[in-house]
Here is the input.
Amino acid sequence: MATGDASDIETRLQRLIPWSWFPLGLAPLYIGIIAGLAAVFSQIYGLIAYVKNQTRLATTTDGFLDLTAYDFFGNDLTRRNGESDPTYSQRISINLFRRRVTRSSVVKILEDLTGRTPTIFEPRRAADTGAYGAPNCGYGMAGGYGSRQIPLQAFITAYRPIGKGIPNVGGYGIAVGGYRVGGQLEYASIGLVGQNVADADIYAAVDSVRPTCATLWTRILS
Here is the structure.
């Protein structure tokens, strides 16, 4: 018996109603009425507990999690195909408190999205271009041509996530097992594959943290 279930509420109701009010011949009817009320109240209690959970991001589930994301981000942070509630909730939380409009924020959002660190080159940043006599420059080795004619611009090379498949499970045509035979085989779904990140997601991620006045030229490699 758990708090709020039918048995719990039935016991609570029986404690409130004196048995002396009912003749013994009416006991079956009395018990039936109490059980019916308890079943209804138990459903109401469960609904209240469920609704209470939807008032905080840490406990929000199901479609209410999608509504929460829509309230804050519109269509910019939708649930991925096969994404679980805990994973989606974590992504929403990360993006709610994400730092923006800095170089480091671009790096962080792409690392969170793809698991890989992007390459960023700013033509007006000496740390990227190198400088005469500085240790961070070498012809054909490090640094790059800088320019003061293209301010507030950067060139970003982002990388797609590395596909991992489904660990420890053989693919189609791989002889690692068979029906009722030992081996690494199992029914699979898209949700087991891991991140499903499209190129459009990468472009949108960069755009979501860039300064309004800046132009970030982005290319995507595998």
Notes: The CA atoms of residues 148 and 210 lie 20 Å apart.
